[in-house]
Design brief:
This protein is an alpha/beta fold. It is built from 33 helices and 24 strands. It folds into two domains: about 350 residues, Glycogen Phosphorylase B (Rossmann fold, 3-Layer(aba) Sandwich), CATH 3.40.50.2000; about 270 residues, Rossmann fold (3-Layer(aba) Sandwich). The structure holds the ligand CCc1ccc([C@H](C)CC(=O)N[C@@H]2O[C@H](CO)[C@@H](O)[C@H](O)[C@H]2O)cc1.
C-alpha cells in the first residue's frame, strides 16, 4: 500500500482506467458514454500499446548497442489471430485492465470479441510462425519477423445450404491499433526489364534495368514476450505505386489509366493466397514472394552496414530462416545485392549467403513443392535467373566431380527441372543455398531424407536436422484455458508459468479422485461455453456431457475428414440398429476452410453438413449422436473449441502430415488423441504413453509398401468390410442428399477406384479404435486419468523448446 493507503494494485487499476479514458477521448475521439465495443477495443489496445512501446523502443536501442546476432524469420504467412489478450497477458496487465474496464462498466470479454483476427495465414505454417515470434521474444532472442501486410487475410467462410462460400476478409477496414507505420522505411522493389552486361577493369558487371518499380512500406507490430521480457518487431510490407497517379493520363481524361499503376502495385499486398498445400504458380504469387524478400533483405543489409560497416561479418551477426520455399528467391536476391550493389566477388558472396540462410520444409506433398516456369521467372526477375543459372552450374560441376557418371543424380539435384517446359525448383534452390535444412517432426525429417531430398542429402550430407514443432503455452493454455491454468499453478506451482516442464508434476496426482473431478469440472465448464457458441451460430443444442469429438484443421483429402465422416455414418447406422447398446453420446465437431479452388474438399464440407442435417433431425439417435460443422474456423474459434475438446482427431494418411500442431494444442488441454502414426502424433505417443492415446491404421512404411505393391486395392478392402460397403452405398446412393442423390457420387467413386489417401485400408481399424474410445469414455475416472497424463506430458511441445533448439543448433544465438 502506498502513502494514499491504496494498494499498488488499486493504483495500477486507476492508472489503467485513466489511460483508457484518455485514449477514448483523445485518440478515438469519443465520449465514453457513446462508445461502441469497437471503440473500447481501440482505446484499450492503444492504452496497452503505450506500455509495450517503451519496452519496444528500449529493446531496439539495446540490441542496436549490444552487437547481438539477430534472427530474421522470413514468412509469407503470420497467423496471429487477436492480440489484445496476448499483449495484456504477457505484460501481466490482464487482471488490471479487466478491473479498470469493469469500473468503467465495460465487460472485457466484449472488448476481446470486438477485435478482428489478423488472419494473415492459411493454417499450420502461418500459425507456427506466430508461435515462434512469441517464443523468440519470450526467450530474449533479438528477432525480426518479415512478411506482407495483406489488406485482406484468409477469406471469411460462410456456409450456405451446406456449401462453403468465400467472402473477403476485412481486418483493416477500420485500421488496426497495434501497428506503427514506418513511412521512413521504404524500399524500391524492381520487376522485369533486362540486364545489361558491362566489363569494368575486365570484371563483368551486370546492370539490371527494371521495367517496373514498386514501393515497399514498412509497418511494425510489436510482439510481446512472456512477462514483457522482450518486445520484437514484426515488420510487414505494404505495396504502393512509385507514382500514385499518372497525372499525364489523368489530365487527358483517362482516369482509370491514371490509376492502373497504383492498382497494379497495390495488388501485391492486397490479399493472401488462400491455397494451402497446393502451389498456385501464378505471377502475382511470385511478385508477392519477391516483393517481401527484396524489401526484407534491403532492410536487414542496410541495418547491418549501419551498425557494422561491412558485409563480410553478416553471417556472424544475422541468421535468416526461410519459412518453407515461399521466400526461397531470397538466396538469389542476397547474391544480387552482394554482387551488383556491393561488388563482392562471387565466392565471397556465396560464402556469406550460404552461411546466413537456413530453410524449413513443412510438406512433402508433391503439389505443394513450388516450381516456377522459366519464361515467367525470366520475364519478372531476369537478373535473378542469371544468378540461379550460375549457382546451378557450380553446384552441378561440384556434384559431377564428387559423383562422376551419375547423370540421373545430376538431373535430380539440379535447380532446373528439364522436364515439362523447364521449371525452377525452389526446394532445390533453398536447400543448396542454406547451411541447414530442417523438417518439423522426427518422421517428416526422416521421410525428407528418404524421398524429396534423398539425392541432395547424399550430395550435401549432414545439412538436414529435425526440429519438431511446438506451440506457445501462453496463448494455447494460459489465455484460452484459464481454468486449467489456475489448477496447474496450484498443483505444479506458479513457476509452471515460466517452466512448462513443471507440468509433469501433475502426473503424480493422476489417480487422485479430487483432482480428476476438478479436471473434469474445468473441461465441462469449457464445453458449456462451446455449447452456447454452437447454439448461437447454428441454432441447435448439443449436450455438454456428450463426448466432444473434434476435427479442426484445413480441409484437405490427406487430413481425411472424409474417413471421420464415414465412421460417423457407420456409427449412425449402428446406433439406429442397436439403440440400447452403451454408446458414448457423441458430438462430432468439424471446422476448417477449403482453398477456394479445391472442389473435392468443398464437396466434403457439403457432405459433412448434409450428414449433420440428417443425423441431427433423426429422433432415433437424439442424445446419442450430433454432427456440427462450425463455420469460419480461425485462431479465435480454435481458442474456444480446443479447451472444450475430449477427443482430438489426427487421422491423416501416415507420412503425409508433416507434423501437425493442433494435435499438441488439444492434448495440452486434456483431449485424448485418436490418430495414425504420422507427423508429431508419434512423438506425442512417445511422451504420453501407449495407454493414453488411440493409435490405428497403416504406418508410413506400410502405406509406401502398399502403394509400391498396388495391393490390396480399394475394391479388396471394401469387399473385406461389409460395414464400409454399406456406408459407401448409403452416401453414394443419396441417403444424405435426397434432393440430389448423385451429389456425392464423385467422392464414393474416387474411393472405390483410386482411394489415394487409403481410407478403405484404415476404415476397420479406425472403427475399432473409436469403439475403444467409447469403452474408455464410459469409465470417466480412467478417461480423466488419461487426460491428466496427456496434459502432464506435453511440456516438450512448447515452442520455447523448439526455438531454443533452432537457436542452439541452427542460428547459433544464445538463449
Ligand atoms: C504454395 C502453396 C502452399 C502454401 C502453404 C503451404 C504450407 C507448407 C502448408 C502448411 O501449412 N503445412 C503445415 O505446416 C505445419 C507447420 O510446420 C505442419 O504442422 C503441418 O503438418 C503442415 O501441413 C504449402 C504450400
Amino acid at each position: 500500500t502506498n502513502t494514499a493507503g491504496t494498494s499498488d494494485y488499486e493504483q495500477a487499476i486507476a492508472e489503467a482506467k485513466a489511460a483508457i479514458i484518455a485514449k477514448m477521448t483523445l485518440s478515438v475521439g469519443k465520449d465514453p458514454g457513446y462508445a461502441t465495443d469497437r471503440d473500447w477495443f481501440v482505446a484499450t489496445a492503444l492504452a496497452a500499446r503505450d506500455r509495450v512501446t517503451h519496452r519496444f523502443l528500449g529493446g531496439k536501442r539495446a540490441s542496436k548497442a549490444d552487437g547481438k546476432k539477430r534472427v530474421y524469420y522470413l514468412s509469407l504467412e503470420f497467423l496471429i489471430g487477436r492480440q489484445l489478450t496476448d499483449v495484456l497477458y504477457n505484460f501481466e496487465l490482464y487482471d488490471i485492465f479487466r478491473a479498470a474496464l469493469g469500473d468503467l462498466g465495460v465487460d472485457i470479454e466484449r472488448v476481446r470479441e470486438a477485435e478482428p483476427d489478423a488472419a494473415l495465414g492459411n493454417g499450420g505454417l502461418g500459425r507456427l510462425a506466430a508461435c515462434f515470434m512469441e517464443s523468440m521474444a519470450t526467450l530474449g532472442i533479438p528477432a525480426y519477423g518479415y512478411g506482407i501486410r495483406y489488406d485482406h487475410g484468409l477469406f471469411r467462410q460462410v456456409i450456405k445450404d451446406g456449401w462453403q462460400q468465400e467472402f473477403p476478409e476485412t481486418w483493416l477496414e477500420n485500421g488496426t491499433p497495434w501497428e506503427f507505420l514506418r513511412s521512413d522505411v521504404t524500399y524500391d522493389i524492381r520487376f522485369g526489364g533486362s540486364v545489361e552486361t558491362k566489363t569494368v577493369n575486365n570484371v563483368p558487371r551486370f546492370i539490371w534495368h527494371p521495367s517496373e518499380v514498386v514501393h515497399a512500406v514498412a509497418y511494425d507490430t510489436p510482439i510481446v514476450g512472456w512477462r514483457g521480457s522482450n518486445v520484437n518487431p514484426l515488420r510487414l510490407w505494404s505495396a504502393r505505386a512509385a507514382d500514385p497517379i499518372a497525372l499525364s493520363l489523368f489530365n487527358k481524361g483517362d482516369h482509370v489509366g491514371a490509376l492502373s499503376d497504383q492498382a497494379r502495385s497495390a495488388a501485391i499486398s492486397k490479399v493472401l493466397y488462400p491455397s494451402d498445400e497446393t502451389a498456385a504458380g501464378q505471377e502475382l504469387r511470385l511478385r508477392q514472394e519477391y516483393f517481401f524478400v527484396s524489401a526484407s533483405l534491403q532492410d536487414l543489409i542496410n541495418r547491418h552496414i549501419r551498425i557494422y560497416g561491412d558485409l563480410y561479418s553478416l553471417p556472424d551477426r544475422a541468421a535468416i530462416q526461410l519459412n518453407d520455399t515461399h521466400p526461397a528467391v531470397a538466396i538469389a536476391e542476397m547474391m544480387r545485392i552482394l554482387l551488383d550493389d556491393h561488388n563482392l566477388r562471387w565466392d565471397e558472396a556465396w560464402r556469406i549467403t550460404s552461411s546466413t540462410f537456413s530453410y524449413t520444409n513443412h510438406t512433402l506433398l508433391p503439389e505443394a513443392l513450388e516450381t516456377w516456369p522459366l519464361p515467367l521467372f525470366e520475364r519478372l526477375l531476369p537478373r535473378h535467373l542469371q544468378i540461379i543459372y550460375f549457382i546451378n552450374n557450380l553446384h552441378l560441376e561440384a556434384t559431377k566431380k564428387n559423383f562422376p557418371n551419375e547423370p540421373e543424380l545430376l538431373s535430380s539435384v539440379s535447380i532446373i527441372d528439364e522436364r515439362d517446359g523447364r521449371r525452377l525448383r525452389m526446394g532445390q534452390l533453398a536447400f543448396i543455398g542454406s547451411h541447414t535444412i530442417n523438417g518439423v517432426s522426427a518422421l517428416h525429417t526422416d521421410l525428407m531424407k528418404e524421398t524429396t531430398f534423398r539425392d541432395l542429402n547424399r550430395v550435401y550430407p549432414g545439412r538436414i536436422q529435425n526440429k519438431t514443432n511446438g506451440i506457445t503455452f501462453r496463448r494455447w493454455l494460459q489465455q484460452s484455458n484459464p481454468g486449467l491454468t489456475k489448477l496447474l499453478c496450484e498443483v505444479c506451482g506458479e513457476e509452471v508459468l515460466d517452466k512448462p516442464e513443471l507440468i509433469k508434476r501433475l502426473e503424480e496426482h493422476a489417480d487422485d479422485p479430487a483432482l480428476q473431478q476438478r479436471i473434469a469440472k474445468i473441461k465441462r465448464a469449457n464445453k458449456v461455453v462451446l455449447c452456447k457458441i454452437v447454439t448461437d451460430r447454428l441454432g441447435f443444442r448439443v449436450e455438454a456431457d456428450s463426448l466432444f469429438d473434434v476435427q479442426i484443421k484445413r480441409q484437405h483429402e490427406y487430413k481425411r475428414q472424409l474417413l471421420n465422416l464415414l465412421e460417423t455414418v457407420a456409427l449412425y447406422d449402428a446406433i439406429r440398429s442397436n439403440p440400447t447398446a452403451d454408446w458414448a453420446p457423441r458430438v462430432k465437431i468439424f471446422a476448417g476452410k477449403a482453398a477456394a479452388s479445391y472442389v473435392a474438399a468443398k464437396l466434403i464440407i457439403k457432405l459433412a453438413n448434409d450428414i449433420a442435417k440428417t443425423v441431427n433431425n433423426d429422433p432415433s439417435v437424439q442424445g446419442k449422436l450430433k454432427v456440427v460443422f462450425l463455420p469460419n474456423y480461425n485462431v479465435s474459434l480454435a481458442e474456444k473449441i480446443i479447451p472444450a475438446a475430449d477427443l482430438s482427431e489426427q487421422i491423416s494418411t501416415a507420412g503425409m502430415e508433416a507434423s501437425g500442431t493442433g494435435n499438441m494444442k488439444l492434448a495440452l488441454n486434456g483431449a485424448l488423441t485418436i490418430g495414425t502414426l504420422d507427423g508429431a502424433n508419434i512423438e506425442i505417443k512417445d511422451n504420453v504413453g501407449d495407454d493414453n492415446i488411440f493409435i490405428f491404421g497403416l504406418t508410413a512404411a506400410e502405406v509406401e509398401e502398399r502403394k509400391r505393391a498396388g495391393a490390396p486395392t480399394a475394391t479388396d478392402n471394401i469387399a473385406a468390410s461389409p460395414m464400409l460397403r454399406q456406408v459407401l452405398d448409403a452416401i453414394g446412393g443419396g441417403v444424405f442428399s435426397p434432393d440430389d442423390p448423385n451429389r456425392f457420387k464423385p467422392i464414393i467413386d474416387g474411393l472405390r477406384s483410386q482411394d489415394r489417401y487409403m481410407l478403405t485400408d484404415d476404415f476397420d481399424s479406425y472403427w475399432a479404435a473409436q469403439r475403444r474410445v467409447d469403452e474408455l469414455w464410459n469409465q470417466p475416472e480412467k478417461w480423466t486419468r488419461a487426460a491428466i497424463v496427456n496434459i502432464a506430458n506435453m511440456a516438450w511441445f512448447s515452442s520455447d523448446r523448439t526455438i531454443a533448439e533452432y537457436a542452439e543448433q541452427i542460428w547459433k544465438v544464445p538463449v
